[in-house]
Amino acid sequence: MQRVINLHLVIGITRTAVDLKLFNILDDSDGPLSLQDLAFKTGADPALLGRILRMISSLGMIKETGEDQFTSSQTSKNLSIAEIQAGLYHNYEVLGPAYQDLPEFHASTKYRIPTETHKAAFQKAWNTDLPLWSWFQSRPKETAQFNRFMIAQRSSTPNAFNFSRSRRNAKTGPRRNHSLFHDIKGRIIFQDLPGEIEHAVSQGLPDGVEAMVYDFYTPQVIKGAKFYYLRAILHDHLDDKVILILKNIMQVMEKDSLILFDEMVLPNYNVDWFATQTDLTMLAAFGSMERTEAQWKSLLDGVGLKVRRIVTYTHTFRLSIIAASL
């Protein structure tokens, strides 16, 4: 009970420890460091620092090896990774206010599921009418944190493809190009919003990959592609916007074209904590959801698509490829 009701304190102190670079300092050390050593390295008051160290040690983030002696743990090693720290900042700074507003937001809707995409706790918390992705466009620091976090998030789970036998395929949507197969036959076109395309090009795309600015709320301009690959896009949207996105693709598909959705496909019961956490994050950030297999089939059937196959490549997190055609 005490752990649950003090979760705000835990995340706040963890953020403070990251700001002080405590996890990095301990991870870089060959052995335990004293409180005085850590105070010197961080510039923090030993009286304050000792209390912070005792708390994060009691939570298992670091190890206390003796009186005022501390060393790293596997958790602190993870928390010293820049991409994971970016995830902490993203969840604390961007999503934290939305999580804080969830009770009031749900009460204001009389505990009903949102009926419009992007009318969520995020908009209330940040006093904006902008969807999260549009809001990011004028927030370079927050955008950079999110993109670094996505590297860590996906690297911690298995991929849909066996990279020893295949290469990366193209992706449409507002994420960094983490999944581009550059040496298969045909044109590989990476589509995204202007800021994302600009960044991807500046970082250097793989040979043979074309970059194209595209907003998936508008008609798709690439006609007759063999595959249209959308990774973690539809879970950001309620059915109304999903239907719009799909119809924009369907109008340019050929009979042998496939849309490949890389999304969670939830079981009907006993859902893993990561999936339930992601589902409610979608609710807070977008007013959207993760979907069950029945919900996916109903949604795609309703818009005129046939589900050809569902391949689940992480059975714990239920990350899956859904192949659909006209």
UniProtKB/TrEMBL annotation:
Residues annotated as domain O-methyltransferase dimerisation: 14-77
Name of one Pfam family that matches: Dimerisation
GO molecular function, one term: protein dimerization activity
A biological-process GO annotation: methylation
Domain O-methyltransferase C-terminal: residue ranges: 188-304
Annotated active site: 235 (proton acceptor)
Protein name: Uncharacterized protein
